[in-house]
């Protein structure tokens, strides 16, 4: 049985067009610790993509779009029944126009080489492209996704090319991990006001055991922000901090259920 993971943490510090996040690389370190200590992942089976080598001392590639897609190809290649495939992403998410989507918008994640101008984002990875990588995974493979990102920013706390500092979580300074696509905002509101589209709610119930197949964890739904925060003096993703902390604090991470993990987080 193989256990493989792709861990992605993007600060965007050298991007120049996207606000810097402070916590994603620390999230990757936390995820790595939990996977190796609680779930028996070997370091050789972790594909790490981060853009802050000063924080992450191990070998890692830059989380560019091409490297990220190549990492997902590595993850699914040769997958067999009984294998465990794990993906963690800490960074920015957003929405872009999509004719194929029910709401006219599609969720995307922003690699380190994404760009942004007055018309919106470029060089992103769409929801469909991401999931297409897993089409070849056979039945019986456990696939776990953890996204510590927002896919629609709170208008009071973020904009596409600048951000506001808010005071909320534990009275600490926090920054949203979702970015508005400036080229979409007006069009999105118009669609809503016209009443031609309504939100389509869907979701799988929690499974009995933590990380049962399939399993996906999101820091927020499409209406909520996800936070980059300082907790106990350390820059982290708020969701990642409590999610992995709950597993670490359990007597045996493999025994914790999804229900209890959700409550603890």
Automatic annotation (TrEMBL):
Domain Peptidase C14 caspase: 3-256
InterPro entries (UniProt xref): Metacaspase (IPR050452), Pept_C14_caspase (IPR011600)
GO molecular function term, any single one: cysteine-type endopeptidase activity
GO biological process: proteolysis
CC annotations in GO: cytoplasm
Protein family per UniProt: Belongs to the peptidase C14B family.
The protein, known as: Peptidase C14 caspase domain-containing protein
